[in-house]
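TASK: fixed-backbone design
INPUT:
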């Protein structure tokens, strides 16, 4: 599960950096790498980034109900 969390976090970071480039320079790096916004590979990346963001909501919500390190460990309460 830890590897999955790391992968989804990396994808969220990639998505955030890509949006930063779009906002600052009107440059979509994902589209540039994968052949345009309508390319199948680019759309898959966009979907994976979106799903990763949804997945990363879980530790965020858990962090509101317990201490943050416990949320990062996957929900086990600190002793």
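OUTPUT:
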């Amino acid at each position: 599960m830890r590897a999955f969390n790391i992968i989804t976090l990396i994808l969220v970071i990639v998505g955030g950096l890509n949006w930063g480039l779009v906002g600052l320079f009107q440059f979509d790096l994902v589209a540039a790498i994968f052949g345009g916004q309508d390319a199948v590979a680019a759309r898959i990346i966009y979907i994976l980034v979106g799903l990763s963001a949804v997945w990363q909501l879980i530790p965020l919500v858990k962090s509101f109900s317990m201490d943050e390190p416990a949320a990062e460990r996957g929900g086990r309460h600190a002793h």
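COMMENT: The radius of gyration is 15 Å.
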